[in-house]
Specification:
- The complex is a heterodimer.
- Chain A is mainly α.
- Chain A starts with a helix and ends in a 14-residue tail after the last helix.
- Chain A contains 7 helices and 1 strand; from the N terminus they run αβαααααα.
- Chain A is elongated and about 85 Å long.
- The longest helix of chain A is centred in the last third of the chain and has 29 residues, at 116-144.
- Chain B has helices spanning 41-45, 95-98, 112-119, 162-165, 171-180, 197-208, 221-229, 242-249, 273-283, 292-300, 322-327, 339-351, 370-378, and strands at residues 2-8, 11-17, 28-37, 56-57, 62-69, 82-85, 88-89, 125-126, 143-146, 154-155, 189-193, 213-218, 233-236, 257-260, 306-309, 331-334, 363-366, 387-390.
- In chain B, the strands form 4 sheets. In chain B, strands 3, 5, 6, 9, 10, 17 and 18 form a 7-stranded mixed beta sheet that branches. Chain B has a 6-stranded parallel beta sheet with strand order 13-12-11-14-15-16, sandwiched between helices. A 3-stranded antiparallel beta sheet of chain B has the order 2-1-4, with helices on one face.
- In chain B, helix 5 (171-180) crosses helix 6 and helix 5 packs across helix 12 (339-351).
- By secondary structure, chain B is α/β, with parallel strands linked by helices.
- In chain B, 59% of the residues are buried.
- The chains are: A mainly alpha, B alpha/beta.
Chain lengths: 181, 391
């Protein structure tokens, strides 16, 4: 039983049932990784928004502070989406964002860039994160997808044992205003 | 006992919890024989309704056997009685209960002070639906304490199965109330957004109430096939324009009556850009509910028509076209279901074979499979429409 459950128990009425022993956690490991990536995305995004000048300097990309801030905003929105019920969209938006980051870093990985080593290190890190993003996005999508099975046809479930036409309008006479209250 | 317990967003577990006890003379304890997962439970699953706490027991659709009776129940119930428990807890004595406005009972919300602040005035206590509505433990459990039990019950006659009567506690009267408050006339076209369990019941109710045309709107083929079986013309909103098709079906007049059986979590699709806008705002906590269906209903409804809202909304919505609604002279009817106002009549219809609500059940599982069933229901996997759990 975690701290939040203990707090929940304290706030309950005396005779209400209280948790004695928790069952297994219902969140799959891939969904847990998705959440962690969501928070990572938000943290990185905030860093890019507030420290864009330092990041631009470290990567030898002067004049690109606006671009870094835009990437920060993108990271924050991907992170929020990854933490939501639509986590698949959030994770795939992270993968797309990773592609953009790699393209930008490759552009900066020029011989005339005095910070080329930093860019190389950043490229390795982004490539690693991209692999995690890709793997998690695939796992989470597979877990929550509706699947490829043909939807069932419930065309025989009318809910009217006497047949639809036999009951059509049967309740109309009962519904005078007086009978509603 | 075992119960399905909320631990956080998308984290419902089958826990071992202490047994419920009689707290007030008007209580009974019920051994739950069947319970269901409701679409509105998914709002809690997604942590979109405020004031739910880790450790809260889920569930507000249940049927079972009375196993313990408080001293103040005064013969209304006895040990061994089989009852459906309505999701709205009612005292049966306050001014609102006397008017049969049971979902706004003035006495059963034990967190009345919080509800007064949040809503302006308290509403009824509800089972398993946050501390805003009393923090009552829900019925997705082996046992449940039913407060004000002398009024809060529907006795089940001998010979009816759990599956036939379980939905008297919520989705059947909810769909019924949505249709009744439309005041359906024989010439009416009734359009119903959402063919989930409540939408399915609303479709059958509109048929029983004699609508000329009933239209069911959804995007899931299995739900549309079930809607069609119940007598509805179906619209798949991912394949065609809802507004154009409804106008085609009504000679461009629009449906006379529109029912929202979706509520705060309408489907998000790039075909309907306002749904993406709503989703973004909801994620940024700038709007609590996604009201695309309300906008579409107001736009397409025939002037002087009725908008009936059965789907749950929790807080604030944005960009509601009040100008359209006002100038078209639309009437809005809405609210949580006054369950016991309708149940005698609906029980009679079930006994007479006019309707058998069990048609909607697609999955039956043990309570320990509840966490997985929540996921299957939420993700619309395996053609899932309605889950019944057997504790």
């Amino acid at each position: 039983m975690n701290m939040l459950s203990k707090f929940g128990n304290l706030s309950r009425w005396p005779s209400d049932p209280k948790v004695i022993k928790s069952g297994p956690k219902a969140i799959a490991p891939s969904d847990m990784v998705a959440r962690k990536l969501g928070w990572f995305s938000i943290a990185l995004g905030i860093a890019e928004l507030i420290a864009s000048e330092r990041i631009a300097r470290a990567l030898g990309m002067p004049g690109k502070e606006g671009l870094i801030r835009a990437y920060g905003a993108r990271e924050v929105s991907s992170g929020i989406l990854s933490l939501s019920a639509d986590k698949q969209s959030g994770l795939w938006s992270r993968v797309a964002g990773d592609g953009l980051d790699i393209a930008t870093l490759l552009w900066a990985f020029r011989h005339d860039n005095p910070k080329r080593d930093n860019v190389g290190l950043a490229l390795v890190l982004v490539a690693g994160v991209t692999l995690i993003d890709l793997f998690t996005a695939q796992k989470v999508s597979a877990r929550h997808d509706r699947g490829r099975r043909q939807p069932q046809d419930f065309g025989d479930r009318s809910g009217f044992p006497r047949g639809l036409e036999a009951v059509r309008g049967l309740a109309r006479k009962d519904m005078s205003p007086a009978s509603q209250n | 006992m075992r119960a399905l317990v909320w631990h956080g967003k998308e984290d419902i577990r089958c826990d071992e919890v202490t047994d419920p006890e009689i707290e007030d003379p008007r209580d009974v304890i019920v051994r739950v024989t069947s319970c269901a997962i409701c679409g509105s439970d998914l709002h809690l699953y997604h942590n979109l309704i405020p004031a739910i706490l880790p450790g809260d027991i889920m569930g507000h659709e249940m049927i079972g056997e009375v196993v313990e009776v408080g001293s103040g129940v005064n013969g209304a119930l006895r040990k061994g009685d089989r009852i459906v428990v309505p999701f709205t807890i009612i005292c049966g004595e306050c001014d609102q209960c006397k008017r049969k406005n049971f979902s706004v009972c003035e006495r059963t919300n034990r967190n009345k002070n919080i509800a007064d602040k949040a809503f302006g005035h308290t509403t009824a206590g509800l089972f398993g639906y946050t501390h805003l509505t009393g923090g009552y433990p829900g019925g997705q459990a082996a046992y449940v304490r039913v407060p004000f039990a002398d009024a809060t019950h529907i006795k089940v006659p001998v010979g009816l199965s759990d599956e036939q009567v379980l939905f008297l506690g919520d989705i059947l009267p909810t769909g019924w109330q949505a249709a009744v408050q439309c005041e359906i006339a024989p010439s009416d076209t009734v359009a119903i957004w959402g063919c989930g369990p409540v939408g399915q019941m609303a479709i059958r109710s509109a048929i029983l109430l004699g609508a000329k045309q009933v239209v069911g709107i959804d995007c899931l083929p299995e739900r549309l096939s079930m809607a069609g079986a119940g007598g509805a013309i179906t619209i798949n909103f991912l394949e065609e324009s809802v507004v154009e098709r409804l106008n085609d079906l009504t000679g461009s007049k629009g449906p006379d009556k529109c029912i929202d059986a979706i509520g705060m979590e309408s489907h998000v699709s790039f075909r309907q850009p306002d749904t993406v806008y709503d989703r973004a705002k909801q994620m940024m906590l700038m709007e609590s509910d996604r009201p695309h269906v309300l906008r579409e209903m107001i736009y397409v409804c025939r002037p002087a028509g009725v908008i009936s809202i059965a789907g749950v909304y929790s807080g604030f919505v944005d960009k509601i076209p009040m100008g359209q609604a006002m100038n078209k002279g639309l009437t809005f009817r809405m609210g949580q279901t006054h369950v016991n106002r309708w149940t005698d009549d609906l029980l009679r219809r079930i006994e007479e074979g006019q309707i058998d609500p069990s048609f909607v059940i697609t999955h039956t599982a043990g309570l320990e499979q509840g966490p997985e069933m929540y996921k299957i229901f939420r993700d619309k996997q395996d053609s899932c429409v309605k889950v019944v759990l057997k504790p």
